[in-house]
């Protein structure tokens, strides 16, 4: 692996050398600012490109925040922001030091992002070297199962959307697939009633419910798949921890009033996608507590919705019975490019993901 070491440099050379030594002990390539030669690019551009070229970033946080760049962030903070969307970030925090206020804020941000991921404390260079060796070794064990194949993630996600026959009405399907591909739930675990009960409880009454408490729910197993279904909603999970959440696509209030023209309401679609992404993240954390799955891909589909107009809530309220019908497409499937995201993005970027998917759906519906 290519491992980028990120920290302040001045006064921290001994610690950076300890981290580099750990990387090289495991026969990986260490990338750091000190080793870059002459370049027509600025130091900032060169280091951020180094982050993008890496497979993993080792982040060392001590007492000092570092000199602020034009962005208002230190170079280390910029490197972290660049890395967190793309790569695993292994966080190492120095103990028994008086941190600058900006460094305390940075640490809170990094620890929040890395919640559930590898982080360790150290007091001296020897502690740090041993901690980096352990962290990289654990990452090696995860990746020994196989590299993450983005194309395979997308193919699995789109196949699950294509196989959705749970509702004859206009439906919105959100599918999450994870890698490296492996068996996360054995058949006995998938059919354990405790899993069905937990999923049902979370879907009905959890922090991000996706089911209707007033509707009946039934559980069934077909091969390596657990399906919880309501009349207009469903949740599917398989042995590889692929998750599909199906919800009504059209504005829910349309069902309560015959005076309203049926429509796809942009804000409602976005909120359903955001809630489904956050729910899928909760499910993934429950079935894969050891974080063996490091990367995810999401696909979103619209089915049986070709006749429905796409409107904002304000447009719908202003003229509820006047709109241009949809283009008549029976099904639409969209995914991001690149589709692969670090798993932590499910928790911390759910609103942004939902906004992007909503935009992609709107483009396709109105094309």
Textual characterization of the structure:
The chain is α/β, with parallel strands linked by helices. It is built from 12 helices and 14 strands. The strands form 3 sheets. The chain has a 7-stranded antiparallel sheet. Strands 2-1-3-4-5 form a 5-stranded parallel sheet, with helices on both faces. A two-stranded parallel sheet has the order 11-13. Helix 1 (13-25) runs parallel beside helix 5 (125-143), helix 2 packs parallel to helix 3 (75-84) and helix 9 crosses helix 12.
Tell the overall outline. Answer: globular
Q: Tally the structural domains.
A: 2
Rg, alpha carbons: 23 Å
Placed side by side, the strands forming the largest sheet appear as 7-8-9-10-6-12-14
Work out the number of β strands.
Answer: 14
Number of helices in the DSSP assignment: 12
Residue-averaged pLDDT: 86
Strand proportion: 15-25%
Q: State the secondary-structure class.
A: alpha/beta
